[in-house]
Amino acid sequence: MTNPIDKHAKTLATSWTFIIVVAAIVGGVGGVALQSGSDSGPENSVAVVNIESAITGGTGDAVAKELRSIRGNDSIDAVVLRVSSPGGAVSGSEVQYRAVKRLAQEKPVVTSVRGPAASGGYYTIAPTDKIYVTPSSLVGSVGVISSVSENNGVPSRWKSAPDKGTTGPADKARARAATFRQSFLDVVMNERGDDLTVDRETIGRAQIYAGNKAVEIGLADEIGGLDAAIADAADRASVQNYGVVYRSPGGLGGLLSIIGGNSDTGAANAVSASEFCTNEYLAYAPQAGPDLEVIQNASC
Q1: Which regions of the chain are under pLDDT 50?
Q2: Is residue 293 a part of any domain in this protein?
Q3: Which among 76, 129, 193, 220 is least buried, having the fewest CB atoms inside 10 angstroms?
Q4: Which long-range contacts (CB under 8 A, 24 or more apart) does 270-277 make?
Q5: What is the value of pTM for the model shown?
């Protein structure tokens, strides 16, 4: 019998990829937002920053650079992160998390999730002041995918969360993945602990939750769209007359790799084989269903 959440996840992954492709064509190579990267804008403004790709080291650096620019821009009073990301490399996810955390210490930061904010995507938004989701948003998947190359050149993979399963002979990499998982859990509990209605063990099972359920258990705050997030951010900054500027971090590495892959495998095809074989990943693969993550074989 087909799991309806799993079926919905597959559909969302396909439509998510298609939307990004169309946006890239319309917006040009420089980004997928209406306005890219410029520091010019109205005297008071809310910046909407698009984070809409799988996460690699390159995309993480691009997001961090964009957020540093915003921190130094006095005309930007508050920020909305417009997120649709299934996650990606641990390194890039950590860079994005630290950049968002630093920004949130200086300006109000609100998140609007329009698709998935799973694994590394959720790690990124955990320190924001408020998380808005839609009923169809997919949130959670707190765990780590790890891989090492075996003698035959095909990497062995396992997942650090109990519900993601564990397979593979390399104890070192398994221990490393477990360490990353604990760090990820620590971040979620520290950033969201007061709002969570479930315990650490439940969060650590790496389940993925639809929007309403995510709000119910405290991984998200409220059902609402981009307009609600913008209004909330402006209110937190105590500005009434303001403009909205749309900014998109430079670099399309994650986007282009998704275009080149199979949308049904989501983040599984979002990075090159050579990069995958040397990294741990915080990534949600929609075809695995709401509780599991899988990665298909790739040559190292």
Answers
A1: 9-39, 147-158, 166, 252-278, 285-300
A2: no
A3: 193
A4: 270/53, 270/54, 270/56, 270/86, 270/88, 271/54, 271/56, 271/88, 271/89, 273/298, 273/299, 273/300, 274/300, 275/56, 275/89, 276/147, 276/155, 276/300, 277/147, 277/148, 277/149, 277/155
A5: 0.69
